[in-house]
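Following up on my earlier thread - several people asked me to post the actual chain instead of describing it. Fair enough. Here it is, all 276 residues.
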Amino acid sequence: MTDVIVVIGAGSIGQAIARRVSAGKHVVLADLREENAEAAAKTLSEAGFDVSTTKVDVASRDSVQALVALAAGRGAVTGVIHAAGVSPSQASPETILKVDLYGTALVLEEFGNVIARGGSCVVIASQSGHRLPALTPEQDKELATTPVDELLALPLLRPDQVTDPLHAYQVSKRGNSLRVKAEAVRWGKRGARVNTISPGIIITPLAKDELSGPRGAGYRNMLERSPAGRAGTPDEVGTVGALLMGADGAFITGSDFLMDGGVTASYFYGELAPGK
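Reply from S.P.:
Thanks for posting it. Predicted structure:
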């Protein structure tokens, strides 16, 4: 039976991880914009990968279920790379919560029902989730375990509580890592693993939107004053993704990997600390 790797969100980071883990396997590239999936498929196909494309809206259960059925119909789903999402400069708080938080929980639930033994999933979260102030243990548990279709009704996610796109993004990404921690228990019963990577600013088209957007000056200052002094590259995220999805990462599940060049460290303990 053919091994299938599903890439949700056909951007630079998803492609970089796919290149590291998909040789000899079939890659299903899914994106909300079919033209993005087709462009990524052309690049991967010309590099020797076996690729097909489809459209998916991660905020729609019917759409995610259709993707699961398509992927499972092609073979054993041994890998899922979930890199779809919207950023604070692209959408309203409501849309960010629906795509980044609810959509991720939905993907984890549906693919957790079909993932093959020995399979692995990587979810792309964000450094932003690490800068959200601490939630209560009860709120953490709610984000981690509330049934998917009840998730957006949580009190901490009410419109009067989440009024700013950046806050929506931060709580969504915190929610992603918490959800993965809980889902790792369920996935483990199938002999599969799931982890999050929380990148900092990685040079992708999405990051370029942010750097030229209303928060661009702040992001550039963040990079200049961070320990690494630069942005990251998709290939660097690909290296961590390959570890987590491969045999060398077989003991790693339910974990979150912060890779931001030290921005978060500097935010709490260095030159980026509030008030400095």
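The chain has one domain: 3-205+233-263. That should answer part of your original question.
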